[in-house]
Amino acid sequence: MSKTLRIMRLTLKEAMSRRMIPAGVALSLVYLVVFGLAFTFAQDKTTAAQAVTGTRGRVLLGVGMATLPLAGLYIVNLLSGVLALFLSVGAVSAEVDSGTLHALLARPMRRSQFLLGRWLAYALMISVYVTVMAGLVLLMASAIGGYVAPDPPRAIGLMILAALFLLTLSLLGSTFLSTLTNGAVAFTLFGLGWLSGVIEVLGGSQNNDAMLTLGTSIAILIPADQLWRAASYYVESASLLVGQSVLGNAVPMLANAPPTPFLVVWGLIYPLLLLGSAVYVFAQRDL
Length: 287
What we know:
- The protein is mainly α.
- The protein contains twelve helices and no strands.
- It is 82% helix and 0% strand.
- The radius of gyration is 21 Å and the shape is globular.
């Protein structure tokens, strides 16, 4: 265990020395500033417009304002997914190519300890990133527009699970694919997971069982988008849900019902299964 934690510390130091963490912090601050300005401008415009619009117009404006914090969180979810893939896409393959891994494993260290140490470091970075960014977005929405999310902890927890799934999926690919190939595969699967959500929403809205089954099947294999939709339910305000009902048009990227127990359990177990597979595949690899 001590060697696993040592690899974890070395990985975190490496991220700092390569300025990955400082660069991520700087870009995140830029995003938060842009979000805050956009939300402020939208709030001012909405307040002025509500005085001259009818009941339906007020409902539409209210839904639009309630959707903005969710859009901010959606971008955080996408950024965390991309960050997870970038961190882990070369976690093993890049070390093999550079020869660094041979020097590390020449010491009395098991491959599983190296791999778990890497995963723990990346998982910690991703979890902190999602928690801080989502928390700040919700705090800004509350301070500027008075938006109060019903259950932020559950939402943030599900967003972290979505990022950890992508992280572990990419880490698994890194144990037997080259860095370039793994990057292409991981980002393609990331896009496919997003597409599955679109297919499922369209299938449900059109009562198309074939599309609904296809989207659900892909979502089981790549549940990142499903986990985001589950998270969105816990930060949707009551006014947003009522507004969607009045307008008769659900926002496609948001959920209208709480997640099923299967999705939550699968979101917890699936990354562990992928991590176990990564440990096994890496143990069998000829270096």
